Amino acid sequence: MIFATRRKNGFSLVELLIVLAVMAALISTITPVAMNAIKKAKATQVAQNLKTLSSALQHAAYLNGANSAGQIKSHGNTPIRLSDLGRDLPKDSSGNDLYGFAYTRTSGGTYYAVVFYAGGDVDLATAGEILGNQSLEYTSTNLDADDSLIEDGAPYRSSASDVYYYFYFTIY
C-alpha cells in the first residue's frame, strides 16, 4: 500500500533562512563599494564647485576690475558677492553658506585668493586627486594676517576638515 503525502505550498523555514543569509552576504559585500562611490561623488562635486567658483572670481576680476579699495566689482561699483559667482550653492541646516571665498590684493593688481567648502564632510585626499596636487588643507597664509581681507559666504576660519583651494591671479 502506497501512502500519498501532500506537500504544502510555500517555503519552509530553512529555505527562507538560506535566502536571507545569501541576501545578507550580498549586501555586506556591496555596501562598502556603494559608500566609497558616494564619498567620491561628494568629493567630485565639491572639487568641481571650487574650480568653478575660482574661475568665476577670476573672470569677474578680469571683466569688472576692482574699485579703489581693492575689492573686485560685480555690477557697477558694488563688491562681488558669493551669489554673483554661483547660484544654488548648498547651505547647512541653519541656512548658512557652505561655500565661501576670501581674497586680498597683495601688490599692484595681484590678488591672493581662496575658495573653500566648509561642510566638513569631504575626504581631502579624494578632492586633492580631482583638483590635481593642490594643497587643499587649511594653511596659515597672508590672508590670515591681512586686515584688508575681503570675504563672503561661509566664514574663513582655521579648520582641518574644510577644503581650501588657494590661487593667485593678476588683473591689469
From TrEMBL:
It is found in: Cell outer membrane; Periplasm. It is a single-pass membrane protein. Keywords: Cell outer membrane, Membrane, Periplasm, Transmembrane, Transmembrane helix. The chain crosses the membrane at residues 12-35. SUPFAM superfamilies: Pili subunits. InterPro entries: N_methyl_site, Pilin-like. It comes from the Bacteria. This is Prepilin-type N-terminal cleavage/methylation domain-containing protein. It holds the Pfam family N_methyl. One of its GO terms (cellular component) is periplasmic space. Coiled coil: none annotated. Its main location: membrane.
